[in-house]
Amino acid sequence: MTGNGLILQVRDLRVHYGAIEALRGVSLEVSQGQVVALIGANGAGKTTTLRAVSKMLKPSTGAIHFQGEDVTKLPSHALVARGMAHAPEGRGIFLNLTVRENLDLGAYLRKDRAGIAEDAEKQFSLFPILAERRNQVAGTLSGGEQQMLAVARALMSRPKLMLLDEPSLGLAPQVVERIFSVLREVNASGVSLLLVEQNAHKALQLAHRAYVLETGNVVMQGTGKELLASPEVRKAYLGE
Ligand code: ATP
Description:
Blueprint: E1 6-17, E2 20-31, E3 35-40, H1 46-54, E4 61-66, E5 69-70, H2 76-82, E6 84-87, H3 99-106, H4 113-126, H5 128-132, H6 143-155, E7 161-165, H7 173-188, E8 192-196, H8 200-206, E9 209-214, E10 217-223, H9 224-229, H10 231-237
Parallel strand pairs: 3-8, 3-9, 6-7, 7-8
Antiparallel strand pairs: 1-2, 1-4, 4-5, 9-10
Helix pairs in contact: 3-6
Bound molecules: adenosine-5'-triphosphate.
């Protein structure tokens, strides 16, 4: 953590896909212990922002500080080792491996087998449905269960900051409720969250702060409450 209480500080991030500039100078901050949401239309650059922060892709320019350290040049595994976990879009779990094997892969940088087994049990108490299915291959799980597995797997690296890409995508309302209540619990246990969501309403309810992205730029920011009350946000992202 930095002296100013920020766990993540992103400055002027630019990302190109060939000739396309997907991020045009994005700056954002996550304070220690906070949930920060990124909302915006399809193609606004939300997924690209998470990928650039976790180094699944290389930013063209910009600076990223994690817990006060300049990590701009570090590869993704070095970030995982420092406490950043990314639960990517499309979940990124292995469908032909069991639930337990997927969890073990989330702890791939750790060597303490007893600690890993203990943490797997922690995830099973957070997600009882995964405990029942621990020896089933992930491909046989429902969409909601797979999403829970993606979150549980990210938690296996004992992150201090978790990046989550669309955890509610394609899930029934009841399952979305469950996912969000787990995210609230995870945050209450001390993990900061940077959350990308199409479900702007739920994201803003959970978030301490939020940013609105439009065509690769941050166009608005504020507390979750402020953005929920903003007429522009209500019209553009809350379907009013
Ligand atoms: P969505 O909700 O649809 O995932 P998003 O806000 O996450 O949208 P990104 O996926 O980050 O947006 O995309 C930002 C821009 O970059 C879009 O214009 C998109 O078409 C483009 N883009 C994303 N990935 C690639 C890629 N691999 N190659 C080329 N262009 C890409």
